[in-house]
Amino acid sequence: MSKEKEGETKVGEMESESSPVMEARLQKSARLAETRPIYPNTFRPLTQVEDIRQEFGALSHEELAAQEHYRVVAGRLMARRDYGKSTFYDLSDPSGKIQLYLKKDLTQAASVELAGQLDIGDIVGVKGRVFKTRTGELSLLIDTLELVSKSLWPLPEKFHEMSVELRYRRRYVDLIMSETSKKVFLTRSKVIAFLRRFLEERNFLEVETPMMHPIPGGATARPFETFHNALDRKLYLRVAPELYLKRLLVGGLGRVYEINRSFRNEGVSVQHNPEFTMLEFYQSYANFGDLMDLTEVMFSELAKLVVGTTDLVYQGTPLSFQSPFKRVEFLESLSTIGGVPREAVTEREKALDYLVKLGGERSPADPLGKILAKLFDLTVEPKLIDPTFVTMYPADISPLARSNDASPELTDRFELFVAGREIANGFSELNDPLDQKRRFLAQVAEREAGDEEGMYFDEDYIRALMYGMPPAAGEGVGVDRLVMLLTDAASIRDVILFPHLRPEK
Hints:
By secondary structure, the chain is α+β, with helices and mostly antiparallel strands.
């Protein structure tokens, strides 16, 4: 037995179109093109591999041999094993893999001749009889074989020889070679479908809001800038859809949601990509407590759908999505979880000194809330493993959230943390236009003082609030990070088909 080496390549060879392997493939393709089309569009598969497995997987070798069942499939040749007058192939289609068996005295002669000119990676169409080998493997005995699409660039010999970076840059190869990667993105699609279904069953309306904004808003983040020639104006890729979605509440759409991209001109890491997918939803006549309850149900049902249970393991750490989730107030968490001295939680200078002690940067202009947020990131966030709602954030770091009635310096806001990272952010919405105007102006002052993430003043949004927005609550969920948890992915790049990377050298 021999495994085919021609037509396969190690990753290093993938970088050169002039490699001997590439030259051999190009010459073979040129010869093949003299006798037949190498990119025809005439073959039509009538079934998929998974359909064959569902239909015949439970039958024995003898039961299949008693009748002739022919099926027509198409897919990519992934491996070849030669045994003299017989050859086995592995064929992969979107639903899975199946073994093909070519036998020179049973397969049509033209197909035998074609098989000798094919490479691993070629896409072929097959008509074959379903059978099981003596070892019980479901297979197709090739009757006829057609070339559907010629592969000129060799596949890597083994998946593990692809570097992580190369998998991200050439996701198409990653998906060919790795069933695990393919399953991640099938799961991602399932997650998004569930989120839509979950909200629509609760009478939320899916809407679309602009991707390009005249004023960046909805989050404290650094935007991407562009310019529209016809309008002769600067525009910004949205950092969040929030302000437009809340305009729809003003307009009388009581429950709305959007699943779409947001863009932030910030760092790239295992948790951050410049463009990312957010679910944002808003509900009139609700408060932040209502949305925490809703989120518990949403995440618990989603975990059961994807994983089969509310108990899962992320990067070796057990997690439970069984409701109720833990809840802790922001200021309390700094002392009880983060170990921050209580005087540093209430006194600005002591908070700043403690931040510097932990290695943080001294920013004399930062208000107390922003200093405490930095302390939270260092001392509390990494310790929040099981789903935990952190509530009652300071008003000076929550410019769009409603102030708490009993403690106006705090807001009716929560963030949901899982496995040491933020997954969701929600709050009772600030619908007082005069208060919102004051907060926007405070953000503008921070921008003018050098804070590039400070919000802009959105006059039209204030105008919308002046018409009257019903009491409401809203929430944003990071879909990419949620998929990471459910697929045990270490990096956000593992769950984004085409993540942004530095230019290739």
